Amino acid sequence: MDADRLAADLRAWIDDLPDRQREVLTLSRFESLSHDAIAEVMDISPRTVNNHIVEALKKLRRWGRSHHADHLSQ
After folding, report:
1. Which tens digit of pLDDT belongs to each residue from 25-73?
2. Measured between alpha carbons, how far is 74 from 69 in angstroms, rounded to an integer?
3. FRET pair for 71, CA 20 to 30 Å: which of 5, 12, 28, 46?
């Protein structure tokens, strides 16, 4: 049950990311596109793709740590 809850939370957190971060993360992690391919699809530089991924993952980690801490305190 906890794994199902975490998966649902993760999906919600991804949905809450800024549009560009969500799009880049989805293309990278779920569609398995390379940074270069994402850059071409989104008409941005590969460096910008990387920056979006880094920021998205930071937010997800922060939300995940917060979720974990909240879960432990219950």
Report:
1. 999 999 999 999 999 999 999 999 999 999 999 999 998 888 766 666 6
2. 9
3. 28
